[in-house]
């Protein structure tokens, strides 16, 4: 089911939680809404679900304007972070619940419900656990039951709001891979909300980066990581540093000196780069500063560098940047590091 979100605005007492949001979700696509807390992810998901309605704009399911259709009429499935399964119902009863409460005209027979529950249990790889109660399951199993329950009504779209947020890191990673495979098997149009960039980058066909009620960028994981379209996206996804620069005749100047980086138009702006996109150098035209700290991450080491700021603010605060250095030949604390960004982007001011 293709979903078109057209110029949506959502106000709560005049506060715009969403402002001119437009997005086309292709049929069968797995989309991640990624953004910091308060950026409007849940609000957008609730509007798609029909749990709330837009102040302005429309939401189309295929050719049908669903903007003001109730949640029952939209036939969507959703799973939330703290999705409470019914504690007094078994796994099978939980999954079958949405079918059992249908009006009699569209309610499947008991045998049909039992068959469907058993297929769904197969699908989420929990066969054999139908008689268990939620408190006899692990957190990861519970979220898979919640997913099966959302799927039971044969939804047109699956909406997941930080479904793995309450689980520990290892289980979350397993479920992430599992969900990707599950999606590839079942092919449901799925919108997945997360504030975890790794989860979004690994899982989604396309990532929608949100900030303050607006969409900042939509693209593949490679697009948003390698070609961030705004300072916000550059900083929010992955690690990055930035310095104020000027561009003169194709040369980028920091504090009036060339740093071995080229630029396009004559302008001033901020030079953004990632720690992994620098090389240590002995060249004259380079950035340099004092190594103030270094820390090991899983497979790499990051050095923190203070670049002095003689022309800067009154208190002469140094600029602080982070660069990746060889893991087994780390540069010494207190020594000077010279380096040059090898990939960068300048955002004009
Ligand atoms: P996210 O899911 O990205 O953390 P939300 O969509 O929950 O963000 O919230 C976006 C903004 O809208 C926040 O500033 C939040 O306080 C506000 N908001 C959300 N729901 C309501 C509501 N029912 N009433 C008033 N403000 C709300
Ligand atoms: Mg939320």
Automatic annotation (TrEMBL):
It comes from the Bacteria. Residues 3-237 form the ABC transporter domain. Keywords: ATP-binding, Nucleotide-binding, Sulfate transport, Translocase, Transport. GO terms for molecular function: ABC-type sulfate transporter activity; ATP binding; ATP hydrolysis activity. GO terms for cellular component: ATP-binding cassette (ABC) transporter complex. Belongs to the ABC transporter superfamily. This is Sulfate transport system ATP-binding protein. It comes from Rhizobium soli.
């Amino acid at each position: 089911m293709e979903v078109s979100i057209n110029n949506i605005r959502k106000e709560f007492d005049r506060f715009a939680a969403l402002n001119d949001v437009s997005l086309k979700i292709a049929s069968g696509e797995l989309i991640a809404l990624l953004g910091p807390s308060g950026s409007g992810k849940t609000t957008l998901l609730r509007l798609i679900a029909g749990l709330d309605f837009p102040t302005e704009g429309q939401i189309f399911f295929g050719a049908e304007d669903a903007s003001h259709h109730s949640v029952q009429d939209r036939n969507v499935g959703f799973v939330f972070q703290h999705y409470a399964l019914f504690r007094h119902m078994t796994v099978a009863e939980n999954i079958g619940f949405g079918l059992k409460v249908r009006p009699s005209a569209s309610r499947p027979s008991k045998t049909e419900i039992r068959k469907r529950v058993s297929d769904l249990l197969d699908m989420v790889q929990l066969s054999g656990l139908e008689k268990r109660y939620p408190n006899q399951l692990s957190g990861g199993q519970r979220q898979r039951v919640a997913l099966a329950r959302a799927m039971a009504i044969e939804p047109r779209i699956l909406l997941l709001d930080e479904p793995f947020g309450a689980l520990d890191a290892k289980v979350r990673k397993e479920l992430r891979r599992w969900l990707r495979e599950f999606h590839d098997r079942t092919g449901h149009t799925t919108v997945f909300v997360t504030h975890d960039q790794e989860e979004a980058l690994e899982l989604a066909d396309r990532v929608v980066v949100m900030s303050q009620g607006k969409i900042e960028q939509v693209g593949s994981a490679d697009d948003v990581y390698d070609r961030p379209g705004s300072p916000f996206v550059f900083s929010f996804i992955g690690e990055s540093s930035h310095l104020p620069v000027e561009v003169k005749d194709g040369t980028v100047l920091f504090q009036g000196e060339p740093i071995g980086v080229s630029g396009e138009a004559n302008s001033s702006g901020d030079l953004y780069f990632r720690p992994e996109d620098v090389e240590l150098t002995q060249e004259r035209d380079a950035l340099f500063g004092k190594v103030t700290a270094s820390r090991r991450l899983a497979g790499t080491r990051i050095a923190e560098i203070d670049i002095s700021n003689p022309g800067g603010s009154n208190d002469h605060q140094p600029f602080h940047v982070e660069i990746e250095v060889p893991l087994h030949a780390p540069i010494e604390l207190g020594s000077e590091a010279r380096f040059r960004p090898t990939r960068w982007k300048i955002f004009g001011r």
